[in-house]
Amino acid sequence: MPIHDQGYKRYGGTRGRGLAWLVMFRSGFIRMFSNRRWIVLMIASWIQFIVRAVQFYIAANFPQAAMVAPTAATFRDFFDKQDLFVFLVTVTLGAVSIAEDRRANALQIYLSKPLTRLEYIFGKLSVLMAFLLFITWVPAMLLLIVEILFAGNFTFLINNAYLVPAITVYSLVEVLMVSSCILALSSLSTNSRFVGILYTALIFFSDALYGVMRAVTGSTSVSWIAFGNNLAQVGDVIFRVPLRYETPWIVSLAVVLTLIGLSALILERRIRGVEIVA
Known about the structure:
mainly alpha, globular
């Protein structure tokens, strides 16, 4: 029979305010853990944890191996070496997050349901951040526990009590920055491969530009040009280790916050139920 009324009607059902993102979070987890390649990547990201755990065991049980005893710099170095897996997870999961929904015109479906734009963005962000924290914050905190167990005392933790908030704060800053940036790029295109290539190109281009500027100026004060350098500088401050660049850490922090804010602005403009053409 013909449909005489195709007008829009406001949703008349009930809605769980602020909880709709949990559905996206749960479905995202289920989908990723059904992918064997993703599971292999997650397992590989924990190899360094195993190596560090063996290092802590040797340092605790063999006095002649005191040179490999853990320090605050050890945990800072752990995050540096996890950057490869942070990058792989970010590109693999983040690039497709919104781009695939845009390609399938799924935004109209998502936002026509009792789901706000903020809940949609937070749902996508929560999945990516959870996986990234699983390969950064979780193993780093477990390494602290492992050190205590192998040493048989709390001496290291007492002398380095700031490591608990340092690990937590740096993990959140790193994960929030890379997650928001890749989601912002993902919202600009319907091609996830292009998003991954663009994200990779921006990172390597900024690193190359920093290398050129450093060679020209003979100084590392221009390190803020490279995205990764800003995270590294902020991380050194958080972990109380010597700074690796001459750039004031407050400048690096400002760049990190600017990237997060710019990404949020892009997401706010791009996540709409109806495409608006200027």
